[in-house]
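#onboarding

Welcome to the new folks! Below is a worked example of what a typical request in this channel looks like: someone posts a single protein sequence, and someone else replies with the predicted structure as tokens. Don't worry about understanding the tokens yet, we'll cover that in week two.

Example request:
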Amino acid sequence: MHCENAPCEVVCPVNATVHSAEGLNQMIYNRCVGTRYCSNNCPYKVRRFNFYLYSDFTTEIVKLVRNPEVTVRSRGVMEKCSYCIQRINRARYDAEKENRPIRDGEIVTACQQACPARAIVFGNQADPSSAVSKAKAEKREYGLLTDLGTRPRTTYLASLSNPNPAILAAGPVGAAEEKSRG
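Example response:
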């Protein structure tokens, strides 16, 4: 969840949770002191406290498995999804080098890449021709806990199914009414 009106940002005493100009709720890990106020104030419970020490800088073999584009967080900080900010930045740098805007579908998040059903769409909501804007314009689109006023950026499409085979056999609603009238 990345909310436009994020309740986690206002409670952080060290301003480690901030809102970017692009609408992302970002964590500044070296500023976080792990008070867990953001987790307590998040209605979606997407923040996790890091109990583990992943930052082992002494073992040589561990250095080889690190992704240099992902921030290694130390024990005692809060963590959350970053919408793969390193991938967003890479696409932004490539577009700037070529003096062009970021293309639709150029940014692929890790969860989007791993989803075999292609159920995850990521992109620029401000561009009406983008895939994410078209998905958000569907009638099936909904957000979780929108009545709280958090305005979540992550939304979902409702799955529609009809468990009644008699309705499927009847065809359109008007046709079923005409059959019953005789």
